[in-house]
Design goal:
CATH class: Alpha Beta
CATH superfamily: Hotdog Thioesterase
Distance between the termini: 12 Å
Order of helices and strands: HHEEHEEEE
Strand content: over 45%
Largest sheet: 6 strands, antiparallel
CATH architecture: Roll
CATH topology: Thiol Ester Dehydrase, Chain A
Shape: globular
Radius of gyration: 14 Å
Structural class: alpha+beta
Length: about 130
């Protein structure tokens, strides 16, 4: 998993947004982000794009955790509850994995464990090794 952690460390947007990789294992990943002023929308809530980026970081890591390059084919997100100035967690799990296609479900929660958003991603496995 060290290669995957090195891979995640190269994600400039995740670094810029303060997204951290908490856990990774084959087919799963957990990423966190503490929502600050720079992550807020005009209503003072966590911006949807920031929540999306957090979920995408967990998705990216989970689908590449097998050590071969995987890129997004399609993603969808449903926002269920607004996030505030708090630490959000995105937990990704592999739903299905074949030689070329992987399906992932990502839940974004707040510190109380409430579901903020659900994200589903489909990845195409190119087969090239990571790193």
């Amino acid at each position: 998993m060290d290669k995957i952690r090195e891979f995640f460390a190269k994600d400039a947007l995740a670094k810029h947004l303060g997204i951290e990789l908490a856990e990774v294992s084959p087919g799963t990943a957990v990423a966190t982000m503490t929502v600050g002023d720079e992550h807020l929308n005009a209503f003072g809530m966590a911006h949807g794009a920031a929540v999306w980026a957090l979920a995408d970081a967990a998705f990216e890591t989970a689908c590449n955790s097998h050590g071969t390059m995987a890129v997004a084919l399609n993603v969808t997100i449903s926002f269920l509850k607004p996030g505030g100035r708090e630490k959000l967690t995105a937990a990704a799990r592999e739903v299905s994995c074949s030689r070329r296609i992987g399906l992932y479900a990502i839940d974004v929660t707040n510190p109380a464990g409430e579901l903020i958003a659900t994200f589903q991603g489909t990845a195409y496995r190119k087969g090239d090794p990571i790193g």
